[in-house]
Amino acid sequence: MEVVIVQDARAGGELVAQGIADLLRRKPDALLGVATGSTPLPVYEALAARVRAGKADVSRARIAQLDEYVGLPAGHPESYRSVVLREVVEPLGLSPDAFMGPDGSADDVRAACEAYEKALAAAGGVDLQLLGIGTDGHIGFNEPCSSLASRTRIKTLTEQTRADNARFFDGDVEQVPHHVVTQGIGTILEARHLVLLATGEGKAEAVAATVEGPVAAVCPASALQLHPHATVVVDEAAASKLKLAGYFRHAYAHKPAWQDL
Fold first, then answer.
1. Pairing mode, if any, of strands 99-100 and 2-6?
2. In what residue span(s) does the Glucosamine/galactosamine-6-phosphate isomerase domain sit (predicted)?
3. CA-CA distances (angstroms) from residue 53 to 19, 49, 72, 157, 168?
């Protein structure tokens, strides 16, 4: 696992955005897996700035959604489809046709999960998957003790995750749905490159467990240790509990570029 420690969230966003721009130069129609929440916003902002400046071409890029709430009405501003369209697709000037995601409002949500798995495979698989991490180590909405071989499915959110997400619902946890559709850990691990971003001291313990702890279902993100090409980008605060932080700083300082993004 490659661990890159940056000064702050903005620096992490610039680094990942440049990596995505480089990927799109090599593969213009790359399928980018996107995450929601506040952590990846600097990436999307930096990438959009590159597009506006003519330094990145995203015209053929495709976007895949990681997860979705179950039961929110179509067009709800906090549905993840709405969030991805608003924060990624529109700023990059992409057509909505370039976007694919699971249907959390389907009459048969389980069938929709299976359909999304097939759609990802038919699209050739995800080239680069952005991930955030929960304070409990979840990725996507794979809560602790999720199967490391799991596929896209319905999950029940923990009360901690609902409380964490209440800020997107005017601070009212009662508005946060209890269920979600999420790519499973097994599905996530099939992406060609995984890029996990984490910022802030509140993520430090989860980052340490992910990078330096054992591979265990109690910390779903630790499954990234099993991936042949996983990169963890963290700011100083999120890296504060890493025992090998000094090594990671030294290793990255002597690389000519972010390797093989």
1. unpaired
2. 10-225
3. 16, 6, 36, 40, 31
Could you report the per-residue pLDDT of 187-197, keeping only the tens digit for each? 999 999 999 99
Query: Is 108 one of the catalytic residues?
Result: no
Name 245's Cβ contacts closer than 8 Å, sequence gap at least 6.
5, 239
Q: Catalytic residue at 260?
A: no
20-to-38, 41, 261 alpha-carbon distances in Å: 18, 14, 8
Q: Which of 158, 215, 136, 146 is nearest to 186 (CA)?
A: 146
Distance in angstroms (rounded) separating the CA atoms of residues 245 and 197: 16
Q: Which of 14, 117, 138, 235 is catalytic?
A: 138
pTM score: 0.93
CATH of domain 2-253: 3.40.50.1360
Q: Name the residue among 115, 98, 114 with its Cα closest to residue 30.
A: 98
Residue 229 a catalytic site member: no
Q: Is 29 a catalytic residue?
A: no
Q: 117-134, pLDDT tens digit by residue?
A: 999 999 999 999 999 999
